[in-house]
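Cross-check.
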Amino acid sequence: MRILLHDNSGHPFQVQLARELARRGHTVRHLYSAVFQTPRGSLTRRPGDPDGFQVGPIDPGRPFAKYSYWQRFLQERHYGGLLRREIEAFRPHVALMSNTPPDALLAPQGWCRTHKVGFVFWVQDIYAEAVARILGNRLGPLSAPVAWHYRRLEGGLLRRSDQVVAITDDFLPLLRAWGVAEGRLTTIENWSPLDELPQQPKDNPFSREHRLHNKLVLLYSGTMGLKHNPELLLALAEAFRGDPSIAVVVVSEGLGASWLAERKSERGLANLILLPFQPFARVPDMLGAADVLMAILEQDAGIYSVPSKVLTNLCAGKAQLVSMPLQNLAARTISRENAGLVVAPGDTGGFVAAARSLVADRQRRMALGAAARAYAERAFDIARIGDRFEAVLNAACPAMT
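Predicted model, tokenized:
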């Protein structure tokens, strides 16, 4: 089977899936956006990669205007045209689309339907609900027509897809309400590439380079956009500023990271260490340098956004400290597996108190970290995950079965 897998973000687990499908004898072309600002996976061919595995960027030629809505709309439509050309050139039997905004999916889906190419919508979040939430906060009732447009657009794309993969059962009631046929729905929870994220000792090249090997490190790594609250990380740095043995490390870029850089300078927070996104090969050492790994998600993100950074963090075998809606799948997983502490969004005092409790109790940190790694080893089996995706892809183009 010829499979085109597009992941706008270039995240680690999607490209791992592409490699796994190629290992099974399929010809797989994995594409990602060259300009999207996010942590990335291993997006070049490596020694030992299957012959059928291809990987490459789509470069729209200008930075992504994430916070300029009109420019973003135009860029996403343009990107969709570039993606359609890639599909046309590769001529797959099936296209699997992940982290791709609805405006960028119109042209690719239209081409696939015209040429009888299977189309699988891999739903990482509900874009229309995010638009409604963000614009609703900013524009109030004036946002209603835009929210209606994106619900209509995204719902139509989903109904026209041959198969739909949801990353949590929490998405299913809305997808059914939008008219997606039950027989086209499959839930496959996200994961992280366990074999590419070995546990590393605290004293490693990354921690030595940044003088973290002899400090207790609270580390946040990932995007910091409108779904995240950098004030929590600032509050931690303020809380521990009097203790030189503790560092708050933030590995990020973009809006939230820039805001933190300004606050760090204004307040003289030497214990707040800001670093850019790291190459994927350095991520195990980066996570190994931490004693506590953090993640943040705002309350209004609700159940419709499941941060993949949490899954990467679980692989590291470190205690988790997260601020996110208690009903979110990532929060439920951490609580159920006793892998860390979950604090409700907006509870800055609770977040700082939870951090203090972890700082004070090394044995508890170790136990939570061991539970995190044990869960990852049970749940992130790429062979089993590959079986499930292969079944979905076959269902999307039955002529190939």
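The first helix runs from residue 12 to 23. The two ends are 9 Å apart (CA to CA). Passed to J.P. for a second look.
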